[in-house]
Amino acid sequence: MRGHGFLLANYVPGTSLVHRMPLWLKFLLVLACGMASFLIVDWRLAAAALAVLCGLFLLSGAGPTRLFRAVRPLLPILLVIGAFQWWQLGGPVAARIVLNILLCVVAASLLTATTPLHRLLDGVVSLARPFRRFGADPERFALTIAIMLRSIPFIAGAFSDVRDSARARGLERNPRALVLPVFITTVAYARHTGEALAARGLGEPED
Amino acid sequence: MSTISLRNAGVSVAVDGRPDPKVLLQDISLELTEERVGVIGANGSGKSTLLRLLNGLVVPSEGAVTVNGADTVRNVRAVRQQVGFVFTDPLSQLVMPTGREDVELSLRRSVRSGKERREQATAALDRFGLLPLADQSIYELSGGERQLLALASVLAVEPGVLVLDEPSTLLDLRNRELLRRTLAGLSQQIVMSTHDLELALDMDRVLVVESGRIAYDGGAAAAVEHYRSLSARSLSGGDFR
Amino acid sequence: MTQTHAAGTLKPAKRRRWNATDLGLIAVFAALVAASALVAAIPVGGLGVPITLQTLAVMLTGLALGPGRAFAAVGLYTLLGLAGLPIFSGGRSGLGILAGPSAGYIIAFPLAAAAVGWLAAVVIRRTVKFRAVLLFVSAMATSIVLVHGLGIAGMMVNAKLDFSKAFLADLPFYPGDIIKNVLAVTVAIALHKAFPDLLVRRVRQLPQKAAAPRAATPGTTTPEASAQQ
Fold it and tell me: What's the CA gap between C59 and C139, in Å, rounded?
């Protein structure tokens, strides 16, 4: 699925070992890191695992800036948690807690940095395949994802249009005037979309 | 040419807090076989509902609608394969983020092989000179380009009938002319509603819809004249609904 | 019409599958939650979890679409965010979220949308008076039990806070939530006025003559009077 510049920020093209790893293996890696955060009790082990993952991240060619950008949103919170738990539970435990969270975050961003978005979405769609016998329909699932992606810019546009028109009428302090038109537009847009799908013979359940 | 036939078709919907249903269309019987059929009428007259009857987007509450014998209620899948529908706003019609993907999506029902689908999509886009824009986001296209793309996507599956609901309303003068020429070159049977009376004058047969009924049915020039006098009369009567 | 009523009572024999319009609503409301998470975020509270229009959009999705479709819409949003689409508040994404302190809130979203949707469907089907108050009570109950409950649990698990500390860290979100729920309910009521068949399906086509020959065919007598699943 192309045409979504605003959503492509995470992927770094490359041919490294991590890039070539199959998606399920990367997913298992992330899952393992998630489990590890419950199993690892020694902060030194957590630090070593984090170092290995950071090494893999740099090896993929995504660069230290991206690595930093992946963890930056969490840093203030981690500082607060770390300091608080140091005071409550002592240095080693606080370090373990913070390092384990970092481990998961780096592992997850390694996955998104080395996998193009359309592969990720294909992966999500393939999750539906085993449930086909229970009525899941991977094709309609993929179609729904595509419609969602193409609707985000439209709705973001509606938010800013409504803000402008509220300002023009001097209503920018009225929260109802700021959000209600967006939702009305959203429902109308959704219905038009559904109607357009039906008109093209798409999206209706198979009998 | 295809034959679209409506037999005593009527559409009414239940409205909250009112005992009687609201009647949108009443007792319409038509046999459409002409190559170019126009539908004109005031806002809210029932034009859109009439067009939506033709491919089963609206089902008749009375009577029946068939396209080449296929009933729009019992056999909606066959009807939609034969009748392509183009909406006023292409943004609500284009489902996928880029033109190429949207055309490929249209072809999904009919073409099994992915490679063939790509080839046919390329051909469909090329036909309207849209190939250079095929991989751009639909939001980066102009209104006219979007409407052409919507048209290309619908025509990719080669329906026999093309229904268009006010396709030129959102277009500027230049794009309106482009659309007009494109439509003129199509081999499909066309049923189109419009507020653009010049466009209506190109049609072989024009229906004037007024308050859910067919107020006039005949040649383009006479129909447009009838519609003009209808509008003038309702204004001078002080009826501004 | 008696036949329609018999089939349209509370439990339809077979679950009606989602049609193209339902698909459109699910996809576009998922996009709405994503867009509202991206428009403007204000970091609030002890742990700096950002406050956005997002919880408003989640609640509204439930109030507008009912349990099934709302769960699908918000679940799709959550799933794609976890898969790596940068659509969580502040443009974050990925499975790493599940390790952070806001994990509980993210997991709560689809459940909250479903719960408030179920309550809203009951309120709209059964009552006429005090709808606004009852909807607000539904939204607040859902917020407190699911969103704040799981939010606190998430901080306890991931940041290893004990209950009282996590409770305190969650407290600053309450004022914003009350305001957002009031807003969600007023918007939802306006939406149901603008689109009366959004949540509770009506018989769309009324055969005017009971003896009309077409009344016996499927399409026209589809029992759609029952509420949306």
Answer: 7
The domain spans of chain C are 19-202
The mean pLDDT value for C206-221 works out to: 38
Interface test with B, best of A6, A122, A150 (most B CBs within 10 A): A150
- Chain A residue numbers with beta carbons less than 8 Å from the beta carbon of C187 are 176, 179-180, 183
Judged against a pLDDT cut of 60, whether residue B161 lies above it is answered with yes
- CA of A142, closest CA in chain B: separation in Å? 11
- Please work out, in degrees rounded to the nearest 5, the angle formed at the alpha carbon of residue A152 by the alpha carbons of B166 and C92: 175
Split at pLDDT 50, 70, 90, the class of A172 is: low
Mean per-residue pLDDT, C161-169: 82
Cβ-based neighbour number of residue B198 at 10 Å: 12
Is residue B137 less than 8 Å (CB to CB) from chain A?
Answer: yes
Contacts of A149 in chain B (CB under 8 A): 97
C3 touches chain B (CB under 8 A): no
Chain C residues with CB under 8 Å of A124 CB are 79-80, 83
Report the distance separating Cα A202 and Cα B170, nearest Å. Answer: 25
Reported for A178-181, long-range contacts at CB under 8 A and 24+ positions apart, including other chains, are A179/C53, A179/C56, A179/C183, A179/C187, A180/C186, A180/C187, A180/C190
Does the pLDDT value for residue C141 go beyond 70? yes
On whether ipTM exceeds 0.85, the answer is: no
Q: Cβ–Cβ of B12/C203 closer than 8 Å?
A: no
The string of pLDDT tens digits covering residues C97-132 is 777 778 888 889 999 999 999 998 888 877 777 888
The hierarchical CATH code for the domain C19-202 is: 1.10.1760.20
Q: Domains in chain B, please, with CATH? A: 4-94+160-236 (3.40.50.300)
DSSP A64-103: HHHHHHHHGGGHHHHHHHHHHHHHHH-HHHHHHHHHHHHH
For helices C54-65 and C67-83, what crossing angle results, to 10°?
Answer: 140
Mean per-residue pLDDT for C6-20? 52
